[in-house]
Amino acid sequence: NAGVTQTPKFQVLKTGQSMTLQCAQDMNHEYMSWYRQDPGMGLRLIHYSVGAGITDQGEVPNGYNVSRSTTEDFPLRLLSAAPSPTSVYFCASSYVGRVNEQFFGPGTRLTVL
Amino acid sequence: AQSVTQLDSHVSVSEGTPVLLRCNYSSSYSPSLFWYVQHPNKGLQLLLKYTSAATLVKGINGFEAEFKKSETSFHLTKPSAHMSDAAEYFCVVSERGTGNQFYFGTGTSLTVIP
């Protein structure tokens, strides 16, 4: 049982580049979500999904796309990177209908030059 | 609407002394509340959670928190700080009707002085 896995662990982009962050879970969780953490701030919700084929926007969705073709995978596409200090992107998963803990991945550290 | 306020951005304690990290929340309905810890360059680990059962919640590593509805607070405490407790701590609120959406506080950085 690997839990929530994320790739890559680190990434450096140039302004305007795009990339896809991968997230997978093997716990058969219906709910998956993406958060970003900026320096000195808490986590903010980007997008979430309550099951395959269903996605919705969170607090800060602009500049990102998501898809959920399977229960296990929830990739996040960054469309056009803007210069920023290192942000950390976390993927999380849990069962729907249970306000319970969310299981977080180890994070992807992204710097845009 | 839900929100979380962590009242201190930095807390510094001596090893062996008590820890108090303060959290106030705003919620329209019955909230669920969590404390997560993040060690440097690591992911998030659940310390403890309150989900409408006992108001005093015990977590891992000797941490506990008390849900006080009248004060809308969920402060995190530990009787004796250890060097390994140095980390960033996040208070989180979620409530029924918002599905699984979590709302994070801005975090409290705990420093433990030897």
Textual characterization of the structure:
The complex is a heterodimer of chains A (113) and B (114). Chain A has strands at residues 4-7, 10-13, 19-25, 31-37, 43-51, 54-57, 64-66, 76-78, 84-94, 103-104, 108-112. In chain A, 35% of the residues are buried. With 113 residues, chain A is mainly beta. The model of chain A has no long low-confidence stretch (mean pLDDT 90). Chain A has no helices and 11 strands. Chain A starts with a strand and ends with a strand. In chain A, the strands form 2 sheets. In chain A, strands 2, 4, 5, 6, 9, 10 and 11 form a 7-stranded mixed beta sheet that branches. Chain A has a 4-stranded antiparallel beta sheet with strand order 1-3-8-7, with no helix packed on it. By secondary structure, chain B is mainly beta. In chain B, strands 2, 5, 6, 10, 11 and 12 form a 6-stranded mixed beta sheet that branches. In chain B, strands 3-9-8-7 form a 4-stranded antiparallel beta sheet, with no helix packed on it. Classes of the chains: A mainly beta (113), B mainly beta (114). Chains A and B meet through β4, β5 and β9 of A and β5, β6 and β10 of B.
Provide the fold topology.
The complex is a heterodimer of chains A (113) and B (114).
Chain A (H helix, E strand, L loop, with lengths): L3 E4 L2 E4 L5 E7 L5 E7 L5 E9 L2 E4 L6 E3 L9 E3 L5 E11 L8 E2 L3 E5 L1
Parallel strand pairs in A: 2-11
Antiparallel strand pairs in A: 1-3, 3-8, 4-5, 4-9, 5-6, 7-8, 9-10, 9-11
Chain B lengths: L2 E4 L3 E5 L4 E3 L1 E4 L4 E8 L5 E7 L5 E3 L5 E5 L4 E6 L8 E9 L7 E2 L3 E6 L1
